Amino acid sequence: MKQLADGTADGRHVLGYESGKGDLRDCVTAYLQSDPQAKADYRLVFREMPAAEVGGLPRRELLAVKPRRGAGNVYEHTCARLSRNLHDRQPGLNAFGDRMPSLKQNQAQRQAELDAHRAIAHAFPGQVPLTTSRPLAAVQFGVRRSPPTPRPGPGLDR
């Protein structure tokens, strides 16, 4: 997690569109190991965005972490968080290309794709962090990006 947050890790591979799994072309997945001696048992999905201010560091937004096996689909969860239908393409994501999710790649090919994806993400004006996003820095951990908007109370006319 720290390597993803500080930019020293790029993730495993970029995601694509697949009907039933959603359009996640602006997202990247990474694998996490709860035991360093075992295979990765968690999948993490994040997206990268341009810096908040000119000259600042790019932002990475963690969208979901789920076990790789068993109940709970990480891609379905991610689409729900982003308010995306699992069967619809997002036209605004065409800038990321049309990656085939089943494409098998070696490490060099994955890294080249991650680098190209990152360059597009940093120039892509269409993404804004979710209102529930929080900084990963220890100093700001848990602090909301902006004050929450109060929810309207029930109407007085019954």
Radius of gyration, in Å, reads: 17 Å
- Helix percent reads 10-25%
Overall geometry: globular
Mean pLDDT over the full residue set: 79
| Biggest beta sheet summary | 4 strands, antiparallel
Gist?
The chain has 158 residues and is of the alpha+beta class. It is 19% helix and 18% strand. The mean pLDDT is 79.
Explain what you see:
The protein is of the alpha+beta class and 158 residues long. It has helices at residues 2-6, 74-81, 107-123; strands spanning 13-14, 17-18, 22-23, 28-32, 42-49, 59-67. It contains three helices and six strands; from the N terminus they run H-E-E-E-E-E-E-H-H. The mean pLDDT is 79.
Throw out a few tags for this protein:
two-stranded antiparallel sheet; 6 strands; 19% helix; globular
Write the layout of secondary structure elements.
Blueprint: H1 2-6, E1 13-14, E2 17-18, E3 22-23, E4 28-32, E5 42-49, E6 59-67, H2 74-81, H3 107-123
Antiparallel strand pairs: 1-4, 2-3, 4-5, 5-6
